[in-house]
């Protein structure tokens, strides 16, 4: 009898244990189901969406840092949170449990979306999400990652306090170490090489979104830097943070993109200086050496490494410190190799004398660090020898808003006066921003309807603003009625050497269409189709940010500068622009101005 009682108690105990384990392995949020799929990793199954599988190695990383991983294939890039079951589940989870839950679109399995973006053979695209729970809608911001040799890009979505990283695993942890990881979103993209022999991150995973469990709904850009840093020690030795080497003081004050001065920014697979530790790591070497203030400094210094809108959160008082100067130098040395810019070198022009991409700098209205950085750069740009040596090429700096007056006074260049090798644009002039036209649509609208609305909007907008460009507008409309990927090889010989042209593009960093254009110009650079591109952000005027309930057919302005017989001309075009339309644009004005050979002329 006692044996039976013991057996019954054992059965009950095992049943309770199994039920507890089952609850841990499976959790349901509304229509969204998370389940452990043996041998395949996690499966995220939401009604109406595909099942995305992530391997167990990913889960090991996720469990290490108490993360939540989500990934979906969604047929629309814009939809209503009220009608989409996946987004309703995500929103409910976000509101109830205060987890950061954002979906990643798989473009490779979504050819319709790829074609609608007119990106052609452009697989290195990263899409991030900005969720505003105060509205019904959610919209995407398109960021493009170029697979350039020796170039790693760190891009940031400035509206949602979400950071994106693309690069080697070693660089990832070096940056991770310098910031509060609770606010980090990471995409791994195997299109960009990891340059590592380790199998910590499976190469067959196209992209992984990592979302830290933390309520960031009340965190703004301004107060993000003031959040306390809580360093989390990993339970898995493979992902152990290294607080001993990678000397942080040396990193901040003397680092030129190297690990302890010897790495030269390359990840060659050796993990001695990496912040990721393997099984044989002596964990006794790790220790806490920094004070809380130093930890906060490290968090702030991380923002120096961003590629776009660098250092928006960095306090002004930090700019005066030597380590910030060294870190600024590190930006250019690390992300522009082999085009290294020595900020203290008076012979800066030697680095770019024969380069197709001369120099690219992003300036923002309230980016005080840009003042400091650009002041060092303009000393070189103002060098007479620099201009004399490179008089066939365009040298440029473009400023937005109040920065313009700073450059105007510094360079002693009269307003609106354009030098043969230098162009300065005043973004305060109203003609550089034109109100966009609006298109209202819902998530059930198919592509043909969307294209029709966009064409009609483009017709109305073009009719009211552009009266001389009828031929070009017809080409533009024809292209959208029959969208095809553009064949760059067809135009490569014709427009291979566009050093007589200065393409000036004004766009909004966070506008969905502006980002399309940005990628188009990036592609022109990488394909040697243009050798000087000037870009500028207009972060304050985009109506897109102020009208989340509307889909905006945003029509930015493109200004083309070209020379005929030594005389500089400029033409303006308003329209939804990509690489294809830029080529047509050059074609059209070549015809209108009887330019038989734009290169020779």
From TrEMBL:
**Domain of life according to the entry:** Eukaryota
UniProt keywords (A-Z) are: Signal
Extent of the signal sequence: 1-22
Coiled coil feature spans:
none
A Pfam family found in this protein is: Thioredoxin
User: Region (Disordered): which ranges?
Assistant: 231-273
Q: Where is the composition biased (Acidic residues)?
A: 245-256
Does the entry feature the keyword Disulfide bond, yes or no?
Answer: no
Q: Any idea where the Thioredoxin domain is? A: 65-132
Q: Which InterPro entries does this chain map to? A: Thioredoxin-like_sf (IPR036249), Thioredoxin_domain (IPR013766)
- According to the UniProt entry, which residue ranges have a biased composition of type Low complexity? 257-268
State the name under which the record lists this protein.
Answer: Thioredoxin domain-containing protein
């Amino acid at each position: 009898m006692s044996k039976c009682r013991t057996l019954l108690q054992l059965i009950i105990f095992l049943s309770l244990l199994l039920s507890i384990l089952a609850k841990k392995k499976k959790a349901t949020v509304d229509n969204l189901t998370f389940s452990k799929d043996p041998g395949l990793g996690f499966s995220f199954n939401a009604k109406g969406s595909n099942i995305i599988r992530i391997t167990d190695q990913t889960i090991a990383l996720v469990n290490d840092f108490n993360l939540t991983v989500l990934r979906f294939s969604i047929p629309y890039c814009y939809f209503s949170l009220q009608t989409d079951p996946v987004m309703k589940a995500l929103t409910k989870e976000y509101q109830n449990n205060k987890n950061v839950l954002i979906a990643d679109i798989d473009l490779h399995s979504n050819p319709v979306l790829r074609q609608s973006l007119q990106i052609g053979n452009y697989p290195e695209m990263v899409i991030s999400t900005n969720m505003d729970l105060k509205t019904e809608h959610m919209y995407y911001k398109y960021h493009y990652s170029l697979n350039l040799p020796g170039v790693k890009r760190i891009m940031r979505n400035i509206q949602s306090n979400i950071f994106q990283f693309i690069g080697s695993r070693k660089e990832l942890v070096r940056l991770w170490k310098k910031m509060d990881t609770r606010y980090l979103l990471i995409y791994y993209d195997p299109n960009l090489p990891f340059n590592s022999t380790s199998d910590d991150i499976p190469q067959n995973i196209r992209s992984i979104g990592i979302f830290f469990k933390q309520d960031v709904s009340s965190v703004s850009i301004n107060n993000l830097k003031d959040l306390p840093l809580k360093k989390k020690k990993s339970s898995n030795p493979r992902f152990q943070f290294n607080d001993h080497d990678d000397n942080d003081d040396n990193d901040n004050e003397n680092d030129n993109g190297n690990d302890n001065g010897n790495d030269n920014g390359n990840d060659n697979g050796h993990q001695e200086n990496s912040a990721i530790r393997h099984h044989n790591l002596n964990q006794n070497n790790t220790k806490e050496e920094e004070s809380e203030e130093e930890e906060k400094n490290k968090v702030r210094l991380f923002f120096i490494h961003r590629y776009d809108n660098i250092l928006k959160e960095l306090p002004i008082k930090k700019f005066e410190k030597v380590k910030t100067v060294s870190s600024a130098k590190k930006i250019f040395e690390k992300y522009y190799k082999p085009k290294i810019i020595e900020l203290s070198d008076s012979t800066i022009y030697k680095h770019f004398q024969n380069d197709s991409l001369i120099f690219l700098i992003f300036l923002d209205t309230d980016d005080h660090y840009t003042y400091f950085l650009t002041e060092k750069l303009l000393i070189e740009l103002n060098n007479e020898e620099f201009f004399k040596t490179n008089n066939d090429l365009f040298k440029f700096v473009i400023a937005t808003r109040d920065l313009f007056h700073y450059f105007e006074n510094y360079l002693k260049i009269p307003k609106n006066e354009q030098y043969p090798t230098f162009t300065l644009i005043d973004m305060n002039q109203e003609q550089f921003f034109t109100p966009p036209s609006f298109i209202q649509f819902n998530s059930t609208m198919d592509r043909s309807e969307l294209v029709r609305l966009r064409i009609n909007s483009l017709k109305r907008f073009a009719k009211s603003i552009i009266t001389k460009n009828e031929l070009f507008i017809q080409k533009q409309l024809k292209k959208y009625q029959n969208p095809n990927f553009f064949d760059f090889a067809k135009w490569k010989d014709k427009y291979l050497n566009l050093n007589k042209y200065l393409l000036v593009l004004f766009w909004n960093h966070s506008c969905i269409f502006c980002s399309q254009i940005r990628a188009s110009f990036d592609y022109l650079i990488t394909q040697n189709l243009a050798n000087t591109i000037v870009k500028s952000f207009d972060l304050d005027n985009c109506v897109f940010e102020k009208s989340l309930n509307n889909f905006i057919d945003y029509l930015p302005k493109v200004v083309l500068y070209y020379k005929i017989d030594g005389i500089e001309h400029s033409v303006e075009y308003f329209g939804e622009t990509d690489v294809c339309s830029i080529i047509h644009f050059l074609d059209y004005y070549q015809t209108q101005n009887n330019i038989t050979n734009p290169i020779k002329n």
